[in-house]
Structure formats: C-alpha cells, structure tokens
Amino acid sequence: MRPRSRHPLLHTRRPRRTAIVTLSGLDGAGKSSQAVLVRKALEQHGIAVEVVWVPIAINPSIATIRAAAKSVLGLISPRTPASSDGGGEESSLDPGKQLVRRRALARHVWSSFVTLANVTSHWRSLLRHYGRADVVIFDRYVLDTAVRLHTWYSGLGRVGLETWLCDRLSPRPLCSYFLDVPAGRALSRKVDRWDLATLRRQAESYRREGARLGVYRLDGERSKEDLAAHITSDVLARLYA
Length: 241
Hints:
alpha/beta; five-stranded parallel β-sheet; 241 residues; single chain; 11% strand; Rossmann fold; globular
C-alpha cells in the first residue's frame, strides 16, 4: 500500500503519465546526491521514482561510428608531415580529429551525430521506465549536453544548431533544475578531468545556456537537505497542478 501523502497539494491518485525531472550542473555540483534525496522524499509521498544517469557522448553507436569514421576520414583527410610543422599538436592527432578541426562541415556533422545519439539515450532511458515509474529523475540532461558541446567545439565554431536539436528532440521535462556552484567548489568536491579554468568557462556556459533554455537555477551551495526539500515541494506542486 502506498503511504498517505503529507503534502497538502498531493492527492491519492497517481500522475496521469510518467514525468521527467532533470538535474544539471558541473561535475561536483551535487546532482547525484540530490537525485537520491529527492527520490526518497517523493517515495514517502507514494510516488514511484527511478533515477537514470545519462553520460554524454558515451554511447555504443558513437564508438562504432567513430571507428568507421576514422578509417574513412583517414583516406580523405590531408596528411601533414610531422617535419613540416615542427611536430606540433595537430600533427599528433589522428586524421579524423584533424579533419574535424580543419573542416567546419565535418565538425558540424560529427557534433550533430553526438547530439542525436544523446537524444536517443534520453528517449531510451525514459521508455525503459515509462508507465512503471511516476517520475524519472535524469542526472544530466539537455543543459549538460549543451555545455559539453560548447566545451568541445565552441573554440572551433558555433554549436547553436546542435543545442537547439537536443532541446527540441529530447522528451519534454516536467521541471528542470540547474545546481549552480562556483567552479572551485565543484573541483574541491570531486576529482575532475577538467582543470579550474575549463570549469569556470563551463560554469559561465551553464548560466548562459540555462537561462536560454529556461532551466530553474538554484544555489548549489545551500544545504543538501534544504535543496532537496525545495525541489521536492516544487515537483509535487507541478505534478498535481
């Protein structure tokens, strides 16, 4: 039997359909901790919840096509002899990466494919739990994909189209939250692949893209319990609005 809700807005009926709640932010912002706390809080109200973590650009189809693309791009990419540029950074890259750096079309094709693979992961994760869970909490979503695309490709050109595609084609969330923490705090919480300068650029991208995508910005330095209570109350109010 489902426990009786203590929330004044919550009825005994279940939501009409599976709803998506998303948590975004820097690595170390506290997304995973909030996902666990919010799940427990919602379950106390009789709501069935699943938490999914969707890694960005880690997808079997990406690995398969990357391997094939390297072979093809190796044939069509202009070779740069190591002696001609003093053995610089670009000469050490594989032909595929050289072409992505040199050719805007190749970059857009590849970044668009990464985007669509991520959209597919969003749908697959939702459909796996659709109808069985009342709420699916995504640890990382469209905003995180947008920031990662900016990190990887914005120095080589614009990625607005890819961000637009990810936002338009991914399942629509009930509510989305951005846990905003300073880059230094995020780095102190978690050993990261990014250096402090990169994390600071990512933090700015999160704030800029989050505002553009309409993601609700929260102070990630508030206590975990306070943040979880805030998010839980907001989700409950939206579920039964």
